[in-house]
Specification:
Helix content: 25-40%
Number of strands: 15
Distance between the termini: 77 Å
CATH architecture of the largest domain: 3-Layer(aba) Sandwich
Number of domains: 2
Shape: elongated
CATH superfamily of the largest domain: Vaccinia Virus protein VP39
CATH topology of the largest domain: Rossmann fold
Number of helices: 14
Radius of gyration: 29 Å
CATH class of the largest domain: Alpha Beta
Length: 487
């Protein structure tokens, strides 16, 4: 096999076909018949003589499409091929006959056109009949699809690459796997330590965290701050921008009169705990939504929980910031709550799209097994189970980790940033940890900041770090819990 240009020119330019431009010694080695590289026994069949195969750099415009090419390629796949060529170079030449008609490699040809390349490496095959060319075209495309995967090993490989690739400014997209496929594999063979993610922790009487403090939880961040304060957003986000937002803002309902059946006593929320008029509550929602939009990518999806009493305020605020609804999701709880007349068994989730960009769709009508609708059925804390009061102890409106994790998987990729401006006891933090995303959270109440950190530490067995001092949460707790500590 030889490597040459159209007019038997010397070595190809070093910036073209790097995977094929080897040393002169290697090229000479390839000039030997391919059979010489095989261990041929007396009983083996020698390869057919189809002329001396050669790899040549040919003008892209000189190649012609096959008369009958049954293989189809979506625009998305062509882009994947183009990205691979940009990153790794040409690892596999186009196959063509002596008339420069493509036998196999139409996707690479289209990708090269998309990249505006002038020349491409072509393996020229001579002496094949028309029937052989057509058979090879089918075989070249079909035989690779007959392979399978060791799913456990594949999940391990993807998991390791998810940590390694960001160092090279790459994501798992470069592998060609869809986000939903990756999530399915990672969760099928993931660590079982997350099974207890819904486990709660107790709320301390005195807070450890303080207003304005930023905690680093590996890739996650938690700031004790106000969702309506732009300076807090700026400190939390820096130059980063969110691919998705999940918000469970206070519903402007007095907590003491609605939750716990009297068995659990909660402090009222710091804001919007029944003290606002409808106009004031709408203004509150609008202010944090505008900040969320500013610190999010164009095309990001924003999910906001609300109860039936405040549909009007949520709609008015959301429409003012984002425009029309993208969808309205119903969280269908497995048990009804308390109340007169009709007992409430659902919460609503308003879904908006930020800006004009397209959003990521990992559901794709169930293409990768994610059969999702706008009715989500998950147990609420009112489900009759022995630990339900423990959940209510940590936070009055706690959400299931699985509900948030599934929503995250619907519209983000692994490594993407998910934002929660009302972090509460940290459900979004745990959900993001479970599915390999980064979570940035704001929480105005330091007691809930502490609860979120403790839940994350209990699950991961890792330490949260105070950004200003480098101390662990446990070290800060010890320092601030002593008799000489100041508040």
């Amino acid at each position: 096999m030889t490597l040459s240009r159209t007019k038997a020119a010397p070595k190809p330019r070093p910036n073209r076909g790097t995977a094929l431009s080897n040393s002169r010694k290697q090229t000479k080695h390839l000039e030997r018949p391919i059979e010489d590289h095989l261990e041929v026994t007396k009983t083996s069949t020698r390869l057919p003589q189809v002329g001396q195969p050669e790899v040549r750099l040919l003008p892209l415009r000189a190649l012609k499409r096959a008369a009958k090419n049954a293989r189809t390629h979506s625009k998305k796949q062509i882009k994947q091929v183009a990205n691979s060529i940009l990153r790794f170079g040409w690892t596999y030449p186009i196959l063509a006959d002596e008339d420069r008609r493509i036998i196999a490699g139409h996707a690479r040809w289209e990708a090269a056109k998309q990249l505006s390349l002038k020349e491409v490496p072509v393996l020229v095959l001579r002496g094949l009949s028309d029937a052989e060319k057509r058979a090879l075209a089918l075989a070249d495309n079909k035989i690779p699809t007959n392979a399978g995967w060791d799913r456990k090993l594949l999940a391990e490989e993807l998991g390791e690459l998810a940590s390694l690739l960001p160092d090279f400014n790459l994501t798992l997209d470069i592998t060609g796997f869809e986000p939903a496929e990756i999530d399915g594999l990672m969760l099928d063979f993931g660590n079982s330590e997350h099974d207890s993610a819904d486990a709660s922790c107790t709320i301390a009487e005195q807070p450890i965290s303080r207003r304005g403090e930023l905690w680093q939880l590996d890739a996650h961040r938690v700031l004790c701050g106000d969702a309506c304060d732009q300076s807090d957003w700026a400190r939390l986000m820096g130059s980063d921008r969110a691919r998705m937002l999940i918000a469970d803002p206070p519903y402007n309902v007095q907590i003491s009169t609605t939750l716990g059946r009297g068995k659990i006593k909660h402090r009222e929320f710091a804001v919007a705990s029944g003290e606002m008029s409808p106009v004031e509550f709408t203004d509150f929602l609008t202010r944090w939504m505008r900040l969320a939009a500013h610190f999010s990518h164009d095309g990001s999806l924003h999910f906001a929980f609300v109860d039936w009493r405040h549909i009007g305020e949520m709609h008015n605020a959301g429409h003012a910031v984002f425009g029309p609804l993208q969808n309205l999701v119903v969280w269908n709880k497995t048990n009804a709550g308390q109340g007169s007349f009709y007992r409430s068994q659902h919460e609503l989730i308003f879904v908006y799209k930020n800006g004009d960009g397209s959003h990521l769709n990992n559901v794709e009508l169930g293409r990768h097994g994610r059969n999702r609708s706008n009715v989500w059925t998950y147990a609420g804390v009112n489900t009759f189970r022995k630990d339900r009061l423990d959940d209510l102890t940590v936070h009055p409106t706690v959400k299931p980790v699985a509900l948030i994790a599934d929503a995250i998987k619907d519209c983000t990729r692994r490594g993407d940033l998910v934002l929660d401006p009302f972090l509460g006891s940290g459900t979004t933090l745990l959900a993001a940890e479970r599915v390999g995303r980064k979570a940035y959270g704001l929480e105005i109440d330091p007691l809930y900041v502490d609860a979120a950190i403790r839940r994350w530490q209990n699950i991961t067995k890792r330490d949260a770090i105070l950004s200003t001092t480098g101390q662990t949460f446990d070290e800060v707790t010890a320092a601030r819990s002593g008799p000489e500590s100041s508040t």
